[in-house]
Design brief:
Blueprint (H helix, E strand, L loop, with lengths): L1 H9 L12 E2 L9 E5 L4 E7 L2 H4 L5 E7 L4 E2 L3 E5 L8 E11 L2 E15 L7 E11 L7 E2 L13 E8 L5 E7 L1 H4 L3 E6 L11 E5 L9 E2 L5 E2 L3 E7 L5 E9 L2 E9 L8 E8 L4 E7 L5 E7 L5 E9 L4 E6 L1 H4 L18
Antiparallel strand pairs: 1-5, 2-3, 3-4, 4-6, 7-8, 8-9, 9-10, 11-12, 12-13, 13-14, 15-16, 17-18, 18-19, 19-20, 21-22, 22-23, 23-24
Length: 346
Amino acid sequence: MRWTLVAALLLGLAAPAAADAPLLTSHLRIHDPWVVADDANRTYWLFSKNDPAVTGDRRVGIMAYASGDLAHWQRPRLVFALPQGSWADDGGWAPEVHRWKGRWYLFATFHNERAALPAKSKRPLYRRATLLAVADRIEGPYVLINRGEPPTPVDAMTLDGTLHIDAAGKPWMVYAHEWLQLGVGTIEALPLKDDLSPAGKPRVLFRADAADWVVGQTQPEGDTGYVTDGPELFRTKTGALLMLWSSWGKDGYVQAQARSTSGTLAGPWEQLGPLVERDSGHGMLFRAFDGRLMLVLHRPFKRALAKFYEMRDAGDRLEVVREAVELDGEAYPTHGCPMEARDAGC
């Protein structure tokens, strides 16, 4: 093992050896996982909201695990801490890290329940948005850009922003507009400048109720909410533009996909249905170092684990090849429980 690590360092590779990565995938409690396969050092980075119980740091922010094989992980480190004086004071949801213009950019959702927004019902609304931060190294530290102000409008309650670069090389932020504010959540797109500040007004791509598998959630206030979560864009081998996104279905949280019929953000978007069901969702795609297309998501919704699937790019859609049970040792069905098995606790 020692020779392997020395050889890796001599070759310019710094992937963590298993002996230096004592945490197994089944040990990681992860919501909204985001993986970057960093070719520079053959290391997988898994980003999530900071958990003080595992980092020892009580600040609100983002932590990252490192691995050389997706099965063994180093103890996480804090890569971003929300600075004092920011308008936000809590959150850290759905972190994403993207390479743009030679630097690493962190997208993560924060909020402040004391920063009230106008409400149309008894349900209180408050400021929530995706903040952007930048670093020269993938492991940080990340610092806020644009004075800590999000690209989205101040009065919009939004979350789960992701970076999309269109065919002309222009950046966009695609995000979910909260059902809390709209009743029926939407997926929206905002054009950005090269410095990732807003370059125009947001546009609605689709509503949660456009998908026939989405089940509205009855709220204490008496209304029904339709959730949009976790958009991520993917260009297939044939040039089709797909979007991963999540909402609630009949058996809990669902990982689904949609396809743009125009091949651009403008759509229109057609819903292709669930990829993974039974309380599984908010996933993202990455290429493993051996070339496989992988999906990582969290499941179940409470006390979630990071779950990996090998995927197939079918040209006009994504398909699940298999669960990567060798990474966490647990088989978990991709689709809903058969009717005949539900009484047995499926």
